Amino acid sequence: MMLEKLLDIKKTMGDKKQIGDLLYSTLREGIAHGIVPPGYRLKEEDLADLFQVSRTPVREAVKRLEYEGFITSDAQRGSIVRQFELDECLDTLEVLEWLRALAIDLLEGRIPRSILMQLEANIKKGCLLTDPKEQFENNLEFHALLIRATGNTELIRITGRLEFRERTIANNILLYSYDANYARAHRDLLTAIIENDKEYISNYKINNKDKVNKYMNMLISHSLYDKNSH
């Protein structure tokens, strides 16, 4: 049963959250990772049975996800996992690319030692990965660490929400593809940030913007193909 995979996610959430928050986080991750795909109808009774809770926390979790735009509800169809529109996907990726470039500018060589160690571990891991989904998560973590290194709480909050949408797009619509040496490029960028090598950073941002634009064009083509095939 598809929903049973949510129990594996639930185990990773720990046991310190209130039941409503736990269900919300579990469903949210399930949607982001494609375990509960777009178009799937969420039934309160099935979720309540799965998690062995009353329908009240299930209903609260679904309402929160509806407020965030991941679920739509109506009297006839119930609660349906929502498919992002193409414009939403493109806007998300465009703004996220801007914010990541801003984070690099804000750092200017100032990276806390604890985060620097996490970045090094991320790069070492990335050099060994071959699975596209694992590479995607590794790349996402690398940029999230750079953003966290800025210490700007608003930048961290905003990009966190957009990163979740990016994960949802990649797992439900079209997965990114990565060059074999993408992690080594991360190491070169990290070195350039530490040394405040503005020329390298400028070239990196131009190259990265080109990659994002290429992926966005692939999303457009994918969307047009889906529409023509139905």
Please count the beta strands (DSSP E, at least 2 residues each): 3
Number of discrete helical segments: 10
Amount of beta strand: under 5%
Strand order of the largest sheet: 1-3-2
Verbal overview:
The structure is a single chain. With about 230 residues, the chain is mainly alpha-helical. The chain has helices at about 5-10, 20-30, 45-50, 55-65, 85-105, 115-125, 130-150, 155-170, 180-195, 200-230; strands at about 40, 70-75, 80. Helix 2 packs across helix 4 (about 55-65) and helix 6 runs antiparallel to helix 9 (about 180-195). The model has no long low-confidence stretch (mean pLDDT about 90). It comes from Brotonthovivens ammoniilytica.
Name some characteristics of this structure.
230 residues; mainly alpha; globular
Summarize the structure.
With 230 residues, the chain is mostly helical.
Write the layout of secondary structure elements.
Layout: H1 5-12, H2 19-32, E1 41-42, H3 44-51, H4 55-67, E2 71-74, E3 78-81, H5 86-107, H6 113-126, H7 132-149, H8 153-172, H9 182-195, H10 198-229
Antiparallel strand pairs: 1-3, 2-3
Helix pairs in contact: 1-2, 2-4, 3-4, 5-7, 5-8, 5-10, 6-7, 6-9, 7-8
Domain HTH gntR-type: 17-84
Keywords: DNA-binding, Transcription, Transcription regulation
InterPro entries: GntR_C, TF_FadR/GntR_C, Tscrpt_reg_HTH_GntR, WH-like_DNA-bd_sf, WH_DNA-bd_sf
